[in-house]
Fold this protein.
Amino acid sequence: MKKQLILVPILAAIILTGCVSQKDYDALVNQNAELTSKVEALETENETLKGKVTELTGQLEQANSEIETCKESIEELKKTVAAYESAQNEAKKDAAGNTGEVSDPNHIDSNTIDSNASDSNTSDGPSIGEVAGDYYEKGKEIGQDVIDKLQNTDWGEVKKDAEEKGHQAAEFINGILTQ
């Protein structure tokens, strides 16, 4: 029993003094400080990246909006080209019907359209100009403006611009998605 009483204080001293040296303890404290610093840096980087994701999401939405606008513009251009081609075909038919040949297949002559309109009038009634008054003349002016603009449009350049815009939009989106 005396031996047990002597062993208890010795065991208590060993247990209370600990099993880790001061050097190992200091190394663990330093490692903990380094890891805490890295965690804080990573949390800051995470917040920065979240901000970039938000910014890029906004850019992507804007790009998608621009793509939709481009698609709408392309559809409008297709309609304009179709209208131009239709008017051109009608002018070719009219020119071929009136003279037997087409001198310039790209030329739409408003005089041909005017003469066809006046040919449809009968001598029994008033002419289109008399019935419509100023509206007929205004319609002729607008029609001629449309014809002039369609004839002076560089459709190759329009197509080239549309393709370039589509390519730029695709590159932009691919750039966002690959980051």
Remarks:
- The helical segments are 2-17, 22-99, 110-119, 128-132, 134-152, 155-178.
- Confidence is low (pLDDT under 50) at residues 112-123.
- The two ends are 76 Å apart (CA to CA).
